[in-house]
Amino acid sequence: DAMVIQNPRYQVTQFGKPVTLSCSQTLNHNVMYWYQQKSSQAPKLLFHYYDKDFNNEADTPDNFQSRRPNTSFCFLDIRSPGLGDAAMYLCATSRDHVWGGTDTQYFGPGTRLTVL
Amino acid sequence: GESVGLHLPTLSVQEGDNSIINCAYSNSASDYFIWYKQESGKGPQFIIDIRSNMDKRQGQRVTVLLNKTVKHLSLQIAATQPGDSAVYFCAGPMVGAQKLVFGQGTRLTINP
Fold first, then answer.
1. How many CB atoms lie within 10 A of CB A111?
2. Residue B77: phi, psi to the nearest 5?
3. Which residues contact residue B60 at a Cβ distance below 8 angstroms, ignoring those fewer than 6 apart?
4. Could you give the 3-state DSSP secondary structure of residue B69?
5. Do A107 and B34 touch (CB under 8 A)?
């Protein structure tokens, strides 16, 4: 089945130690998104790629970076994780921008990040 | 500001009953809405979507109703089952910005 895959599902890191989360998709979608979701809250968009074009949300901290080396893969890099960065990180994809109203956004299972 | 919001943070129903989860939005130009189901520890799962040229859309055991006059949409789940226990989010595009706006979520609990 075509899907959005995230690895690892659980990640533990130390305060200040860089960490990378990965996402891959077999849907051949143009758009890949990274969201942060904290407990009992809605997902919050960090940034997205349309193909190779990177779009950062204005309130996303510089501590968060992303790479998309090819259509299938997208990475979230947290350069110096703080305790407040502990959250579920969700990758999502859509064929075209979901806000265009023509294509749905599909989420991966998420990576739960713990910062010690 | 533009918003999409759910009316109740929690909803408890008896197994076998129908569930209705409500959502309101503020921008009349919003033209596309999605309902997601998120089980504990998992990513949001697409349930159903609806575009503004429709008033109603049905899926398997689910129906979404869109009332553009009062800027309200609802998700109806027929014959609620234990597996329906989850947090349900409505979401819609933020007009003029490249993002989806999510409601706060409604936690649906099924009583046996």
1. 22
2. -115, 120
3. none
4. coil
5. no
Asked if B94 is an interface residue toward chain A (Cβ–Cβ < 8 A), one would say yes
- The Cα–Cα gap between A47 and B42 comes to 20
Whether A104 contacts chain B with CB within 8 A: yes
Per-residue burial over A6-40, b if 16 or more Cβ lie within 10 Å, else e, is beeeebebeeeeebebebbbeeebbbbbbbbbeee
**Banded model confidence at residue A101, pLDDT cuts 50, 70, 90:** low
Contact A104 B34 (CB under 8 A): yes
Q: What's the pLDDT at B5?
A: 67
| Mean pLDDT across B88-103 | 83
pLDDT, tens digit (0-9, with 9 covering 90-100), for A62-95: 999 999 999 999 999 999 999 999 999 999 999 9
Do strands A10-13 and A111-115 pair parallel, antiparallel, or not at all (unpaired)?
parallel
Picking from A10, A94, A98 by the largest number of B CB atoms within 10 A of its own CB, the best residue to mutate is A98
